[in-house]
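A note from the maintainers: we've had questions about how concatenated examples are separated. There is no special marker in the raw files; a new sequence line simply starts the next protein. For clarity in this README we add a label.
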Amino acid sequence: MRSIWNGAISFGLVSIPIKLMNATEHHTISFRQIHTEDGGRIRYRKVCELEDREVSQGEIGKGYEESDGSIVPITDEDLAHLPLPTARTIDIVAFVPADRIDPLQMESAYYLAASGAPAAKPYTLLREALKRSKRVAIAKFALRGRERLGMLRVVDDVIAMHGLLWPDEIRAPQGVAPDVDVTVRDQELDLADALMDTLGEVDLSDLHDEYREALEEVIAAKAAGETPPETPEPAPGGKVLDLMAALEKSVRAAKQSRGEEGEAAGTAEEEGEEAAPGSASEPEPEPESGAEVRHLPRRKTSRAAEEKPARSAPKKSTAKKTTAKKTTAKSEPKKTASTAKSTAKKSTAKKTPAKKTAARKRTA
C-alpha cells in the first residue's frame, strides 16, 4: 500500500509517528465519453479564461472565489502552515464505547502504520489499550484541505481510522417515516422473527458484485464481436393479498433454499392451499401503480379450524356423495307415503257415490 499522508498520533504526551493508507478500494468499471457517430473520445480541456488558451496541470493552482467574483490565491505552503494543531497530527480527544458512534457518521476507512522502528512500541501500546478497554478513540485530523473527525479502532493487529462526519452534517430524518398510523400484530412479528431466524447469517466474504461481473461479460462479448448475453427472464412475482400469507411463504421459501424441504412441506400442508396468494379460491387484486401493504381483518376461525378442512379435503367429496345418497333414500319413502295417501283419497272419493245410491234405494 502507498501512504497518502504522513504525521503522528498525539496520545496525551505520547507522539506516535504513523503513515496513513487507504483501507478500501473501489472495483467499479468506468466509461469514457465518446462521439456516437465515429467513436472519437470526448475530452475536457482546461483553458484559462483570461488568455483563452489551454494550460498544463503544472500551471494550475488553488483559489478561493469571494462574493464579488474576485479570486484569492491559496498555495500548498499556505495550507501547510495552517494555525491548527491537527495539520500534521491525529489528535486523540476522547475514548468512548463503540456503540456511541452512529454508523451514519462513518466515511472513508484508513489503516495507520507505525513509521519506523521507534514508533513500534507506542503504536503497540495504544493498540493493546484499545483492545483491553473495548473502546474506540475519537480524534481530530486535517486531510485534503479541511479538518475532520475520526474514530480509531483495532482491526486484527492494526489500528484503523474511520473518517466521521461532524454531528451537524447529519440530517434529521424529518418527514421520512410513514405518516399514517399502522398497527403491527404479534402474529406478524412472530413470523418476521421466524423469517429472520431462517435466513440466518451470511459470510460477507461470499458476497460479490454481480452487476460488475455481468458488465464485464457484455464488454468481453462486444470486444470479441459476439452478441452480448441476454438478460434472464425475471421470476414471476406472486400477487400478495395478505401480509401474513406473504411472510408464511417467505419462511417456507427460505427453508427450502437451506435444504429444509421436509419441514417446509409440512408447514405448507398445515397452512393449506387456501393460504397461498393468487390461488383460484381468492379474488385477484387490481393492478396498482405502487407497492402497498394492506392490513386485512383478523380471521374469525382458529388456526386449527383452518388446518382441518385442508387435511380432510379429499374426504369431503366422498362425504357429500354419501350424504346425497342418503337423502335420496330418505326422500323415496316420503314420496311413496304421499302417493299412498293420495291414492286412498281417490278411492274414498270413488266409493262415496255408491254409498249414497244404496241409501237412496233403502229410503225408497
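[label: protein 2]
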Amino acid sequence: MQELHDAPLAPLTTLRLGGPAARLVTATTDDEVISVVREADDTGTPLLIVGGGSNLVIGDKGFDGTALVVATRGFTLDGTRLELAAGEVWTDAVARTVEAGLAGIECLAGIPGSAGATPIQNVGAYGQEVSSTITEVVAYDRTARETVTLANEDCAFSYRHSRFKADPERYVVLRVRFALEDAGGLSGPLRYAETARTLGVEPGDRVPLDTAREAVLKLRAGKGMVLDPEDHDTWSAGSFFTNPILTADAFEAFRARVREHLGPDAEPPAYPAGEGRTKTSAAWLIDKAGFTKGYGTGPARISTKHTLALTNRGGATTEDLLALAREVVAGVHRTFGITLVNEPVTVGVHL
C-alpha cells in the first residue's frame, strides 16, 4: 500500500483537473481498501474514492482528506459468470469478455474508468447498461462496518443511477459480478439504432462480438470518447450532462418551447422512458441552444467532436470548466426551460 502527502490529483482524472490531496493512498487488495476506509471513518477524516478518474470533477483547492485509489485486480470467468475486482480497467475487461466469446457488455467498450464505478453510475451506452448483466455487487458497508453482497434487485438501478450513487457515503464497491451470454460468438441484440445502422443491420439483430465492439469503439472515437493523451477532445469526463427525463406535462411544455424557438414544425428527440415519461437528448438541447461543437474561447471548451463533452484544452482550471458548464446550463434553461444535471461527481465544488 503506497502513501503520499500533498499529492496531485489532476493526473488521476481524465479531465487533468483538480488540486492536491492532503493524503493519497493506493490500495491493491480488498483488505487494504477496507482498512483505509475504516481508518478514515474512525478518525472522522474526509474520504474520496478514486477509481479510473473518468467521472470526477475535483476543485482547484484539492481535497483536504484521504484520497483512496482503488487499484485492486481480479478477472475471474466461470462459464458465463464474471467477477471483476473494483480496480480492474473496464475497457480491458470488456475486451477480454469479447475474446472469450461472451455477450452482454460488448457495446460498453471504450468507456474509461474502473469496474467498481460501473454499478454506481449504472454505466450505459449504445443500447446496453451494466444493470442488465450485473447479478451482485460486493461492497464494504461503512454504516454496518462489514462487507455485504447486494443482489441486482437491491441495487435500485435506474438511468445513470443506483443505490450506491444515492447514498455515496455508505458503500465502497469491492467486486462486481455479471451473468453474460454465450450466443455462439455473436453479440447481444443491437438495441441502438446508430450501431445497427453503422453495421448495416436492423435493430435487434446480432453480429459477431468483435464486430460490435469495434463498431462502438469507432463511433466513440469519432465523438472524442476514447481516451487519447494527444487529443484534447478526450480530456473530458465523457458526457457531462445526463439526458433529461420528463413527465408528460413537462414534455408538452418543452415541445411548445422548441416550436417557439425553432419553428412550428420542429420536433425534439423523444424516447420512451417508462411510466408516462419521455427522455430527450442533452446533446441536442445544448446544440440547439447555441452551444455548438468547439464552443468557447478559453482553455475549457465544448469538444469539437461532441457537444455533450466539456474539455480541458490544456492549462484549464476546474473553475474554467465550471464557468463553461454554468453557461451551458443557463443557456439551455433560458431557451427550453429544462435544467441540465451534471453526470460526473463534483468534489469540493458545485455547479
